[in-house]
Every structure is written in structure tokens, then in C-alpha cells.
Amino acid sequence: MEHLIIVLFMQNRENRMLRIRRHLRDISDPFSMPENEFRSIYRLSREAVRTLIEDLRPLLLPNTRRHAVPVELQVLTTLTFVASGSYQKRVGQDYLTCMSQPTVSKIIRNIVNALNILMRDWIHFPIEEAEIQHVKEMFWAHAQFPGVIGAIDGTHVAIVLPNTEREHLYINRKLYHSLNVLIVSDYEAKILTVNAAHGGRTHDARVWRASHVCNHLLEMYTAGQRDAWLLGDSGYPLLPYLMTPKLNVPQHSPSAKYTQCHVRARSCIERCIGVLKGRWRCLRKERALHYTPEVAARIVNAACVLHNIALRWRLPEPELYYDEIDQEVQRINVAMEGEHEVRERIINTYFHNRPL
Predict the structure, then answer these.
(1) What's the pTM?
(2) From CA 192, how far away is CA 125, in angstroms rounded?
């Protein structure tokens, strides 16, 4: 009898707390707060979030439950998580959210999956001639480097110890578990492609070789495209469609001028990653994602979509964030036949008589 009384008391207490959460959730209106406060919490403007909600609504299964969480609050809850990197329980305890941890978990999963569907609208590599020409013109206007259709780099996103037999594939050279995420951006720091499918142990060059953009550029080159290339650091192979810096060259030589312009042009990808992690803090090393590698990769993709949305709405850049491991380059000396001729042709054509 005493045990039954305790069980009934706990059930009544849980139901009472649930009603309180629902009441607080229903009367909250995050859109009524000042714009600056709204941006500091959700990292996007109110107009951007409203547009995002309408884009996501058709991608979410309709919920006919009487006390279903509105789509607006689902999106805002996920933005809180991605922007802060807090635990799900802490996100649910926020005075504007008022949800249990299981509810927050389900919401984040659904919204992240929907954002991954939106990737095709927000993240795409330039294929049309007008798009390619625009990217080239931006690199030329700001860095005077010809033919550039993007800058490439890898960044590590920390994850917890994965429960898999292949756990060793996620230990990076700093000895913590991570994903090695390939990102290509244009000069304005817009993300053109992202690949978060590889563990932290995988070298940047291998991630590159396994990417769709690598196959695409090879097909372009084979088809006769000879005036377009990415810019990568010395951790990538020198290819006719991937230019790397030329190291240990005489000062003030055309090769030195080439490398200086290369570094200046490629700085956009470093800024892109710094802005990405500065705005969406769940990607930072100290906020390791407590998910399987597959789910963590989808969260990375979702953050990249949100990054491009913030750029589209011209929101101010946050304080840039850089991981120490991203600043290190594991140099390689792999080159494809004919690539040195392409680089030397660029140097002789554009940097031979150029002043420093």
C-alpha cells in the first residue's frame, strides 16, 4: 500500500511538472524579445528564422497530438543547441524552451535531418558558367589570383568516444576523437561543399580524394576544362585543378609572388571555418558532440547550412574561432603528371612581371 501511494505521488508530481512546462512553453514568445538579444541566443535574425521555419515546415511530419511542440519552437530549440553546444537537458531547461530531455533529443534529430535535406538548396558547388565566372571574379578582384573556383581546407570537429570497433579511425594527431571535415568556400566565405564522413585519423589528402568535388574537377579537366582550380595548402596534392603553394623559393621571385597571392586568396577558407565555429559553437573542440559519428556528421552539415543562411542575410561576423589542430599542415609531396607545368604556366603568365 505504501509503495502504491509513493508511485501515485510521483506520477501526480510528474504530470504537474509536465503541465507547468506546457504552460510556460505556450506563453513564451521568443520573437517578442529585442533583435539584439534574439541574435545573441539564436545566431540568426528574426526574419531569417521565420523564413527558415517556413522552409522546414513541409519537411517535417505533421504532429496531430494535442500538446505537440510548435514548429517555431522546434526550430528555435535546435538553433539554441547548435549555437551553444549545450547538453540537451540544459537546452530544455531554458526558460524559453521548457521541455524534457527526450523531447529535445527528438526535436534536434528531426530538425537536423530536415536541414540536411535543405543542403541541396543552400550548399552546392558552382557548375553553371555564370556561377563559376562570379567566383573567379571575386578571387581575382580581392587577391589577384586567376582561375580560382574555391579554396579548400579540413577542420576537426570533436566527438565523444564512438562505440564502434573502428574507434581508432576517429583519433586525430592531437589524440582526441574527431571528424575530419572537408570544406570548400568561395572568397566571401560561402560554403560550396562539405564532407563530414571521415574520422579524425584520415589525412586531408585522403578525404579530398574520396570527395565528390575531386571526381567532379577530374571530369572537368578530362573534358578539356583547363582554366579552373581550387587552392589548397601543402597538405593537398598538387594537381592541374588544385594549386598548392610553392615553398622554399627565392625572395621577390615570381614564385614567391605566386605563393604570397596564393596565401592571401586561400585565407578565405580559414576565415570561413573561423566564422562557422565562432557562430555555431557545438562544432568547437571543447563542446565535443555526444553523438555517433553518423549523427555528428549530420549536425555538422546542418551547421554549414545555417552558416550560409547567416551569410545570405548579411549578419555580422562573430568573433572568429580557430582550433589549434587546424593550423598544422601535414605536408605531402604527391603530384599528378602535368601539374607542375600548370603551376609554372600560372606563375609565368600572371606573376613574372607583377610588383610585390
Answers:
(1) 0.89
(2) 5
What contacts 88, CB < 8 A, 6 or more positions away?
81, 101, 104, 105, 108
Domain boundaries, the chain: 1-120, 126-352
Per-residue pLDDT of the chain (356 residues; tens, 9 = 90+): 555 555 444 545 444 444 444 434 444 678 988 999 999 999 999 999 999 999 999 999 877 566 688 899 999 999 999 999 877 666 655 646 568 788 889 999 999 999 999 999 999 999 999 999 999 999 999 999 999 999 999 999 999 999 888 999 999 999 999 999 999 999 999 999 999 999 999 999 999 999 999 999 999 999 999 999 999 999 999 999 999 999 999 998 999 999 999 999 999 999 999 999 999 999 999 999 999 999 999 999 999 999 999 999 999 999 999 987 777 767 765 555 567 899 999 999 999 877 76
Cα–Cα dist 38/43, whole Å: 8
